[in-house]
């Protein structure tokens, strides 16, 4: 019996400015869209979407690969998912102590009474740190760990 497009695995490629691409085959891919999380399955319609800071999950059976991205765009076409992002990191490569320290610094900046705090930049740093912690197995809430 010939394999159909529906049963072919998805090919995920995550390309970031700061590293070599990640390449993974998966049966399902979850992406952090600007408007919310969405999933891609084999046979998905062609799509281009903007991505926010967050976690990308690629599932193949019982195995799951997890990555953190810093926004970007995704293109889905013929069972290929291409993610273009500023930075990407595999969950295995995340330094949890560094991510915790970044979260504490961002929280400190946001809670600071100083006039020169760049709130948008501090909020973006907090979102990145929280995504890194979530990907490494320690989901953190904005109010604390």
What kind of sheet is the major sheet?
8 strands, mixed
Average pLDDT reading: 83
What is the CATH level 1 assignment of the largest domain? Mainly Beta
| Helix amount | 10-25%
Q: How many helical stretches?
A: 2
Oligomer: single chain
Q: What is the CATH homologous superfamily assignment of the largest domain?
A: F0F1 ATP synthase delta/epsilon subunit, N-terminal
Task: Estimate what percentage of residues fall within beta strands.
Answer: 35-45%
CATH topology of the largest domain: ATP Synthase, domain 1
Rounded radius of gyration (Å): 17 Å
Low-pLDDT stretches are 1-6, 140-145
* CA-CA gap between termini: 52 Å
CATH architecture of the largest domain: Sandwich
Structure description:
The protein has helices at 96-111, 119-135; strands at residues 10-16, 22-26, 28-33, 36-40, 47-60, 63-77, 80-85, 88-90. The protein has 145 residues and is α+β, with helices and mostly antiparallel strands. The protein has two domains: 10-91, F0F1 ATP synthase delta/epsilon subunit, N-terminal (ATP Synthase, domain 1); 95-135, Up-down Bundle (Single alpha-helices involved in coiled-coils or other helix-helix interfaces). Strands 1, 2, 3, 4, 5, 6, 7 and 8 form an eight-stranded mixed beta sheet that branches. A hairpin with a 5-residue loop joins strand 1 and strand 2. Helix 1 (96-111) runs antiparallel to helix 2 (119-135). The longest helix has 17 residues, at 119-135. The protein is elongated and about 55 Å long.
